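Hmm, what's this shape?
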Amino acid sequence: MNNNFQNYILKPVEDETFSNSTNLNKWQIALLVGSPILIGAVAYYFYLRKAEKKAVNGNCNSKLDKSLKERKSGVSAQSSEKKNDGKKVEDKHLDGKKSEDIFSDSISLKNQGNKYFNAKKYESAIECYSKAIECCPPGDTETLATFYQNRAASHGMIGKYEKVIEDCTKAIELNKRYIKALQRRAKGRLTLLFLICA
């Protein structure tokens, strides 16, 4: 028993960090796992930010352009009468104009709003987007959702987060899968929450 005690006492202590074994310390594992996750999250953030800028600048109008082409070719013409509670109601947006003209007017108003947004004239951009919403045919839900989301972006730039949430909610009601509107609404809610708690 005395011999075992002497072997135990005289045995050198090995430092785990400098051992030749393949075992990793907890901090090394955390670093190996956490670094790629952090890099991926940062890359995703910048990707979303770039995509948002492109959409606001008007570079991503493929759906709108396709819809405009369909309207001009007469594929998706809308009637001037709508049924509302069993009664026929004249469409208020068709004041003697064809639906293609009204649609192209709303698109040009949106493009003007994008120009104001890029020039950091957010109040003017809000006015243009509001006019585009007014003259856009109500049956074109994707385009209307885009206009509401663009107006929400302008509201966000001037700190009107209640309006951001309101416009994004309208955009989501019109297009349930509108990811950008969902993200902007969540961002608006978080910012408003932080402002309230601060």
Q: What stands out?
A: Residues 59-65, 71-95 have pLDDT under 50 and may be disordered. The first strand starts at residue 81 and ends at 84. The beta strands are 81-84, 87-90. The helical segments are 2-10, 26-57, 62-73, 99-118, 122-135, 141-157, 161-174, 179-197.
